[in-house]
């Protein structure tokens, strides 16, 4: 407590934080454990935001925290903001609880938390279910040499750091992983096909890195539990991933598919029309060319579609007018032409959330043009000739 906070004189104010009847020690949870029903033990620590203890300017990471024999959860938020500090462990000659009882470790929004992720964080803390190290200034590679077999890890969030190097292929050993977020780092190399081994994965976010190469077919075919997939703002392409020819893909539960800002330079994959549960599809700023597949009209649950700033040509599929749940559609800055297939009620429903501007060959029927003009005084985002 003294390493992190100067809110109080902790030793005199709370000498026995877990003693029955003692006043509650802020930021600490005590409870009885299965191995000891006579005494309660510290099982959770919270620092950084009220009503938990605030952190002093000189706060640094206390390695002794890993020696608490019954500690199950650590949450440190906006704590290390002035004095640079690193995640450290006690010296090797100091015994740690075996097996470690720690199940949740969350260090978020600590702008002075620097350095590499210690390999021991994964190899030693074998009971971890949730590991969140997001919005810090961690650097170096994701440690790989000591990934444990049979890991209990369910959520891994390393987003918004400065991590470099490739995504380790050993990531496939985390068989219980439900959420994986490595977004907003400086990761390079290709996406390992071993990610397809994460059979229960529901969220995969690799956006805003420098990943390149072809997206592995295993991402599209093997992750049948996936609900959220974000690959935006990388250097990925889809050539050679097995698309073209209405090949069946396995993302049958996918609801959010964000893949804008990649140099695809290919026709839009017809296969994406198979994603029946899709609610949001973002494929903008990627150099796609050719016609919009009419199969996308089968995405009956779609509420948001972003295809802007590509080189798409031809007409807008007539079936788009039947997307009853759509509330946002951006097809601007393409080479589309022909009559816009939307009636006046569709245009009124979307209003400014429909953007067709930057397509010189598009035109509205007189009634649709009147509806657009009535909606916002001249067509607004619709912006067609």
Automatic annotation (TrEMBL):
Cell compartments where the protein resides: Cell membrane
Cellular component terms per the entry's GO annotation: plasma membrane
Entry superkingdom: Eukaryota
Keyword Repeat: yes
Keywords from the UniProt entry: Cell membrane, Glycoprotein, Leucine-rich repeat, Membrane, Repeat, Signal
Protein name: Leucine-rich repeat-containing N-terminal plant-type domain-containing protein
Pfam families associated with the record: LRR_1, LRR_8
Alphabetical list of SUPFAM superfamilies matching this protein: L domain-like
């Amino acid at each position: 407590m003294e390493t992190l906070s100067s809110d109080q004189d902790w030793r005199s104010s709370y000498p026995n934080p877990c003693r029955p009847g003692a006043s509650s020690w802020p930021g600490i949870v005590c409870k009885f454990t299965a191995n000891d029903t006579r005494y309660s033990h510290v099982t959770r620590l919270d620092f950084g935001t009220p009503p938990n203890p605030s952190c002093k300017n000189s706060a640094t990471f206390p390695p002794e925290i890993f020696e608490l024999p019954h500690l199950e959860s650590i949450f440190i938020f906006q704590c290390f903001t002035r004095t640079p500090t690193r995640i450290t462990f006690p010296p090797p000659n100091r015994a740690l609880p075996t097996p470690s009882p720690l199940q949740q470790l969350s260090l978020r929004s600590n702008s002075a938390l620097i350095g590499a992720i210690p390999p021991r964080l994964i190899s030693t803390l074998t009971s971890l279910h949730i590991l969140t190290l997001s919005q810090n200034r961690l650097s170096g590679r994701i440690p790989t040499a000591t990934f444990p077999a049979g890991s209990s890890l369910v959520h891994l969030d390393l987003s918004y750091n400065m991590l470099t190097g490739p995504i380790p292929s050993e990531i496939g050993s985390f068989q219980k992983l439900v959420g994986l977020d490595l977004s907003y780092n400086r990761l390079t190399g290709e996406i390992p096909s071993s990610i397809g081994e994460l059979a229960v994965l529901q969220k995969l976010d690799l956006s805003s890195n420098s990943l390149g190469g072809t997206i592995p077919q295993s991402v599209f075919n093997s992750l049948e539990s996936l609900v959220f997939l974000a690959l935006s703002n990388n250097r990925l392409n889809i050539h050679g991933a097995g698309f073209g020819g209405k090949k069946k893909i396995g993302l049958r539960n996918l609801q959010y598919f964000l893949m804008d800002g990649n140099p695809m330079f290919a026709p839009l994959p017809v296969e994406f029309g198979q994603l029946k549960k899709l609610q949001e599809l973002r494929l903008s700023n990627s150099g796609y060319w050719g016609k919009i597949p009419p199969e996308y009209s089968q995405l009956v649950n779609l509420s948001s579609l972003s295809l802007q700033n590509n080189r798409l040509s031809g007409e807008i599929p007539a079936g788009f007018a039947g997307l009853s749940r759509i509330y946002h559609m951006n097809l601007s800055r393409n080479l589309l032409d022909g009559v816009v297939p939307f009636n006046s009620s569709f245009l009124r429903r979307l209003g400014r959330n429909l953007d067709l501007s930057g397509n010189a060959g598009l035109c509205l029927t007189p009634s649709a043009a009147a509806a657009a003009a009535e909606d916002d005084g001249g067509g607004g985002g619709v912006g067609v000739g």
